[in-house]
Amino acid sequence: MAMPQLVEKEWIFLASGSSGNASIVRWGQTCVLLDAGIGVRGLEKSLLMAGLRSDQIKAVVLSHTHSDHCNPLTIMAFLEKRIPVFLEGTLIPALRKKMNEEIANFLIPLRAGGKKEILPGWMLKSFPLPHGDMPNLGIVLELDPGLFEPAFRLGYLTDLGTWSNEIAQFASECDLLGLEFNHDVEMQKSSNRPSYLIQRNLGDGGHLSNEQAAACFKKILSQSLDRFPRYLVQLHLSRQCNTPSLAKSAAEAVLEMSSAQKIQVKTCKPGAFRLRIPWCSPRNRKDFGTLKKLPGVVPNNLVKRPKKRANPPEQLDLPFSFFPME
């Protein structure tokens, strides 16, 4: 008897950064929207360019409700179609007041530290992330195809001002990992932003710097006992206070100090940058050899800083599908 064909899976990034965040996790013909920080028209256009339709989205998952992760009109459009929207439970009462009861029933609470099956075979686990006064969730999606395919595990951590061993443990053992690399500390401090905003972004309730994210990534690898991710996807880069090359250099410095160099680092540039990553078979940790002991902080001299230019070019490194703007 012939073995059944494996169902195609992929993670498609539609937008990243302070102007909006949204990505699609696709398993066959079923899609889940992970954060919805772009408008309805922008989402429809991005889906069309990816060869997808909005009616393939069967659930929406929100990390939190800041406007760059939760566009109210987009969320309302899904609720009106009776598509469930999953989010941290304490955020729901304020939203329910703005809609009728029938639609509001499709706002489904998530408990930080809990797990919930959002669709058949789709298990969602969540963990609290520090982001000021806003409840924010780190998300792990586990897809269990059954007997003929191994389970897949995707981790999504963004908008966190600091990290802990518990957060790293939560994000370990993932096949794909999305992690915030928001800013370069030197660029943040020397920016022309208001001082309160600089302090917020540098504080424990703000966003991870490249150095913090690299240290978190290192800890995630050290806590991954059975398998490493095939890809690290860098998320939520600041347009003013970071560059893709600085962020990528910080992550690659971790890999250079380890034997896990087969992990590919891909960077979501700020804005409506569209990036498509296929899921392959899970990769066992033994495929990488033994992870060397890494220092707690990535040394600054290992982060390759580009020479200053008026308009530094953005190079595309695309061994996977990419579909550009217009």
Q: How many helix segments?
A: 9
Order of helices and strands: EEEHEHEHHEEEEEHEHHHEEHEEE
Q: Structural class of the secondary elements?
A: alpha/beta
CATH architecture: 4-Layer Sandwich
Specify the biggest β-sheet. Answer: 7 strands, mixed
Strand content: 25-35%
* CATH class placement: Alpha Beta
Calculate the terminal CA-CA distance, rounded to whole Å. 46 Å
The number of strands is 16
Number of domains: 1
Strand order of the largest sheet: 6-5-4-3-2-1-15
Choose one word for the global shape: globular
**Helix content class:** 10-25%
Rg from alpha-carbon coordinates: 19 Å
Q: pLDDT under 50 segments (min length 5)?
A: 288-302, 306-326
Q: Kindly state the mean pLDDT as a whole number?
A: 84
Say what the CATH topology is: Metallo-beta-lactamase, Chain A
How would you sum up this structure, described in words?
This protein is an alpha/beta fold. It has a single domain (9-302), classed as Ribonuclease Z/Hydroxyacylglutathione hydrolase-like (Metallo-beta-lactamase, Chain A, 4-Layer Sandwich), CATH 3.60.15. It is 23% helix and 25% strand. The chain contains 9 helices and 16 strands. It has a 7-stranded mixed beta sheet with strand order 6-5-4-3-2-1-15, covered by helices on one side. A 7-stranded mixed beta sheet has the order 7-8-9-10-11-13-14, covered by helices on one side. It has a two-stranded antiparallel sheet with strand order 12-16. β1 and β2 (22-27) form a beta hairpin. α8 runs parallel beside α9. It is globular and about 50 Å long. The termini are far apart. 45% of the residues are buried. Mean pLDDT is 84; it is low at 288-302 and 306-326.
